[in-house]
Design a protein that fits this description.
Shape: elongated
Radius of gyration: 38 Å
Helix content: 25-40%
Largest sheet: 6 strands, mixed
Number of helices: 8
Structural class: alpha/beta
Strand order of the largest sheet: 7-8-9-10-11-12
Order of helices and strands: HHHEHHEEEEEEHHEEEHEE
Length: 267
């Protein structure tokens, strides 16, 4: 029997309609998807140019580079001190500036700073928004003073005592009491007491004296004293002191260490 002719071997399979079969549908459709219209191709090229141009603008151009640094919120510190300690890389692309590193640097170099927010100020600036620590008490150190904030943190030594900030006297015996609580803990308790004293009395405090954890007293203007006791039950002790001072305004000594049984003496 004769084999297939050359024409038959080269002939493409035909479908039922008589047209040559172009292969599986998936192959035909895949080829059609790859044929981009001129409009789509132009859109893709434009998008690539925009992305490339944006990256170049952020990192390569001279338009968006750091030219100025501005510190705000300072009180005791000067803006120049903050800006110098920040060491912002002037001239660097603004987008590449490490704001976390600047924040860490400021907190390490300037302990007076309680917190700082470092922000990019487009198109060419860095802003340093500073919040300084405020002294709640002062420790005497020779002729100078160590400032202690509301968290019990000693953050600065100054030559002149800030106005209306009480002195802290740690007249603590080197006993089991100090070994148990430690100087830092006792200092935090003193700050805690200072914060819970009634507002009408707080301005009269001259000295906060700590003898032990349970023996914290206040020296007020006019030679008056207040035995506060420990830092516990501060709200109840504040109410008791307010009531006691109204009831016995000429008293020289007030004891609210047991707020349910306050006492006053002297005149």
């Amino acid at each position: 029997m004769a084999g297939p002719t050359t024409a038959e071997r080269g002939a493409r399979p035909r479908s039922e309609s008589g047209r040559p079969d172009e292969g599986p549908p998936a192959r035909r459709f895949g080829l059609r998807r790859l044929r981009l219209s001129p409009r789509v191709l132009i859109a893709l090229i434009a998008m690539a140019l925009l992305v490339g141009g944006g990256i170049w603008s952020l990192y390569g151009s001279s338009w968006l580079r750091v030219e100025k640094v501005n510190a705000s919120g300072t009180d005791v510190l000067t803006r120049a001190e903050v800006e110098t300690a920040a060491a912002v890389p002037v001239g660097a692309p603004l987008i590449s500036v490490d704001t976390d590193a600047i924040e860490t640097r400021l907190l390490r170099k300037l302990p007076r700073i309680d917190s700082v927010e470092v922000v990019r100020s487009w198109p060419n600036g860095i802003g340093l928004k500073v919040i300084e620590r405020k002294p709640a008490l002062l420790l005497e150190k020779g002729a100078k003073f160590i400032e202690v904030d509301a968290g019990g943190v000693r953050f600065a030594t100054v030559e002149k005592a800030p106005k209306d900030v009480p002195l802290l006297e740690l007249a603590v015996d080197r006993s089991a009491g100090t070994q148990r609580f430690g100087t830092e803990r006792l200092m935090r308790e003193a700050v805690r007491v200072r914060a819970e004293v009634p507002e009408n009395v707080a301005g009269d405090i001259r000295v906060v004296r700590v003898r032990s954890y349970d023996s914290i007293s206040l020296e007020l203007t006019g030679g008056r004293t207040v035995m506060w006791g420990s830092g516990e039950d501060g709200t109840a002790k504040a109410r008791a002191l307010t009531a006691l001072m109204k009831a016995v305004p000429r008293a020289g000594h007030f004891d609210v260490s047991a707020p349910t049984a306050p006492a006053a003496s002297g005149s």
